[in-house]
Specification:
6 helices
């Protein structure tokens, strides 16, 4: 609910985030999550820290795969 309630602001902030050119996938995702404000919204609700989730390669790959799949299914709003 918090993500959808803040979706416009998250997207506006997120598109302006430019991770460093040589950033790892983990660092790039973290920069986008932090810069958009997503980390601040989800951190209180997580049992593991955002850093722990993003540093887990299997979980990170699953997140990226889910995001790609969503873009394949959602053509517009």
């Amino acid at each position: 609910t918090a993500i959808f309630a803040n979706q416009k602001a998250l997207l506006e902030k997120g598109v302006s985030v430019t991770p460093p050119a040589n950033a790892s996938r983990e660092a790039a995702l973290k920069a986008i999550a932090d810069g958009s404000g997503l980390t601040a919204i989800v951190s209180p609700r997580l049992t593991r820290s955002v850093d722990a989730c993003l540093s887990d390669a299997a979980e990170r790959d699953r997140l990226v795969a889910m995001t790609r799949a969503a873009f394949d299914k959602i053509k517009g709003t």
